[in-house]
Amino acid sequence: MNVKGNLFTKWVRIEPLYNEYNYDTRLQQHNSSYMNLHYPISKNQEQYSRLPLFFYVEYNGKFFSGWQKQKNSLSVSQAIAEKFQIFFQDNAIVVYGASRTDSGVHACRQAAIVYLSCEDHEKIMKSPSLAQKLLTAVNSMLRGRIRILALAEVAPDFYIRSASKSKSYIYFLSSSLFSSPFHQHIWELSGKFDFKKFEQLIHLFKGKHDFFHFAKHISLAGKNSERTITSVRLVRKGEVRIVLFRGNGFLHHQIRMMVGTCVQIAKNYTFEEGANILQSLLQRKDDSFARFTAPAHALFLHRVHLTRSSLLQMRWLVK
Asked: What is the pTM of this model?
């Protein structure tokens, strides 16, 4: 199975920010005791009624109302949990992810855990063939809209949010005269567009800033809106431009508002004027400028980057 190339990233041949999946393998090769890692059900785990199973997953966000479970519509996590419930005949199974993607947003490699009963968890850990059967059965039921990429054993107290050190997202844009056959995954801008100015503008987001004005305010109640973006890149692949962001975390709608606002500024202002607008927004001096939220269909969660300590806890079952 090839985790590096999947969905739309395989078509544009994007190089990963770094090959974390191979890094996982190197960690295993340099620690023989880690290769035999196993967490049996013992007196140290009697406090746990359920145990986590780690997995990587990709999905097409077009068919779902986001990652997080919703009351009146189907979410990605809900769809995955339902298939695990069918396989194990256990309605108490729940799924948690490292990142909560919005409705319509896709993922190339989301990191997540599913909580299984101790008995089912032990069966999977003891039988590689059953783990493979689980992955095959769940993927068959998900019908190509979601695909589980790999399964791994982790410690009973493994927590997916604290295991994530950073996340990277990619956004696709084009200003070609003719529509792309992959238009369902690209924000196609009408008319000529100055991508050089756009690239200069998006680089102003690099570093630690207060992104209060680049987030959906209803989701910010009582929350810290400071985030650190460690890397911003613009890559050209033919007529398509791919923006790559990597940071310690992102607010609700943050990337879509950053991209949309920079597109709006690049169309209507000089770089100097645009830079002043962005700096004013980041410093929360003025909120009179109308931000624009870019469409969700062109945004992908590229990957969740895990901490070294969490990677050392893992024993790959299927990959």
From this structure: 0.86
